[in-house]
Amino acid sequence: MSTPLTANTLTDRPVFQGKLLIDGQWSDAADGSTLERKSPAHDQLVAVYAQAGVADAERAIAAARKAFDHGTWPRMKGAERARILRRVADLILERKHALAEMETLENGKPLAQALAEIEGSADLWQYAATLARNLHGDSYNTLGENTLGVVLRDPIGVVSVITPWNFPFLIVSQKLPFALAAGCTAVVKPAEVTSGTTVMLGQILLDAGVPAGAVNILVGRGSVVGDVMVTHPDVDMLSFTGSTAVGKAAVAKSAATLKKVSMELGGKNPQIIFADCDWDAAVDAAVYGIYFNAGQCCNSGSRILVQESIAKDFSAAVIERSRHVKVGDPLISGVQVGAITTEKQMETILHHVAAAQSAGANVALGGARIQGRGMFIEPTVVTGVTSGMAIAREEVFGPVLAVLTFKDLDEAVALANSTLYGLSAAVWSQDFSTCMTAARRIKAGTIWVNTFLEGHAELPFGGYRESGIGRELGRFATEDYTETKTLQMHLGARTDWYVPR
Ligand code: NAD
Question: From the CB of 181, is ligand 1 less than 6 Å away?
Fold first, then answer.
């Protein structure tokens, strides 16, 4: 293994050179364009990529189409696909340090958290391998003596996989192995600012034996490459993770060719803190829930709803613990919160804080950019928030916690359900009835009870309402990448329709 990357050795690190993976070959863009990425924590150039344009996107889709219509991948036994997916998982683990370093340099997250993300992603490839052998249809032997009904699961075809910059490797691993397990082929486009680990995954796929054209990887702009992937008639399905605004526009555009869509979008997730909660656990989860990944999580607990009788003391405890969260260079061990990933996101976050203040909320802690090299924001707690304010309804996607209060369970549930999102929520109480009643009434795809931000390959993930369409993970994850085909078989002599008079 090479020497681990530290803040001191970063300047000696060679700039990563990434190309496009089309039909099993690494290539430059047809028009020779390139795209550069600087580390948001160090403001240093870390990668240069071939930047795909429309012609490259069309070539990648044609390669995926050919690999699906005529290639070996969809025709292989599930057991053989499973073997290759397991090999991918093994290679991810073998290369986990290099992958984690790239994730940290492009995204800005602490190295230990990037490593955990890569290891968790390898687990998803392993899990998908088990599903490759378990994908099956159904049969009906109950349709009368002359009829046998069989329901087949057919891979849907070519899938466009479009991912965001907050968990680049995890999110591609929530989609691609499951599409591959089902026998689909794919064109993958990571967010342009965090393309490195997806490009590195391309080499892993080739090394593991995924055939040429089965997975094609394009680095490029959403408005150019993404647009082709969303609209092209040879693409059968769109699997998208990103913002609700871009996701809605993509669904509308994909409708012209009636593609199947799977959408994982934004969230404004509440953690509901009842007076009888386990105090220390709830304080810790409130802090972890908002500062993990610098709050740049679709699942961030960006609102805490605190029961009035404890609101003052609980907010004070959260603010006190927030003061001790370690923000800084993600290559330094012990740092808990790294950089904001893009300049645009930094502006969005600061805009939300200013707007909350103008609306009458109180910025009780933080709220400003940390001066110096790189893009960092102070852990921020906004109190006195009411449900009508933008900070209570809109996704900030930064380390900014909004604190609201409630009187009783009915009001807590109403507040939890008061945004257009419905991705996740948490309930903190030591009373079983309180937890279950709230959990059953909250409209969200994941409800954590006395815990927060846990994830398992076995458990489906996705959102209600404007948080998305469909579910990833879980034992039905591969089914999402299939069409259902009914076979009706007649046994014995036909009873003629035409009867001669
Ligand atoms: P984004 O919507 O700006 O971009 C997501 C992807 O879409 C990128 O690859 C981008 O290049 C591409 N894209 C942009 N314009 C496009 C277009 N016109 N056509 C096709 N593709 C286009 O999102 P982001 O800023 O990268 O990520 C943050 C957002 O993602 C947040 O809203 C967050 O909540 C959401 N997210 C959701 C989940 C989830 O599972 N629900 C997980 C992670 C992130």
Answer: no
Summarised one tens digit per residue, pLDDT across range 23-69 is 999 999 999 999 999 999 999 999 999 999 999 999 999 999 999 99
User: Are the beta carbons of 46 and 38 closer than 8 angstroms?
Assistant: yes
Amino acid, res. 199: V
How many other β-carbons are positioned within 10 Å of the β-carbon of residue 33?
17
Atom 35 in ligand 1: which residue has the minimum CA distance?
242
Q: Quickly count: other Cβ atoms within 10 Å of residue 443's Cβ.
A: 16
Q: What is the pLDDT of residues 260-293, one digit of tens each?
A: 999 999 999 999 999 999 999 999 999 999 999 9
Beta bridge pairs of residue 217: 21, 188
The pLDDT tens digits for 88-147 are: 999 999 999 999 999 999 999 999 999 999 999 999 999 999 999 999 999 999 999 999
pTM more than 0.90: yes
Dist CA 433 CA 30 (whole Å): 61
- Mapped onto helix, strand or coil, the DSSP state of residue 135 is coil
Specify the length of the chain in residues.
501
Catalytic residues: 264, 298
- The neighbouring-strand residues paired with 240 are 162, 263
Torsion angle of C-alpha atoms 352, 356, 358, 362, degrees rounded to 10: -140
Q: Is the CB of 342 under 6 A from ligand 1?
A: no
Q: Can you list the alpha helix ranges (DSSP code H) found in 383-457? A: 390-393, 409-416, 432-441
Instruction: Report the C-alpha gap between 163 and 342 in whole angstroms.
Output: 15
CB atoms within 10 A of CB 133: 15
Query: In 3D, which of 118, 112, 105 has the Cα closest to residue 15?
Result: 105
242 lines ligand 1 (CB under 6 A): yes
Residue-range domains of the chain with CATH:
7-265 (3.40.605.10), 270-449 (3.40.309.10)
Rounded to whole angstroms, what are the CA distances from 466 to 173, 253, 303, 419, 422?
23, 17, 17, 9, 7
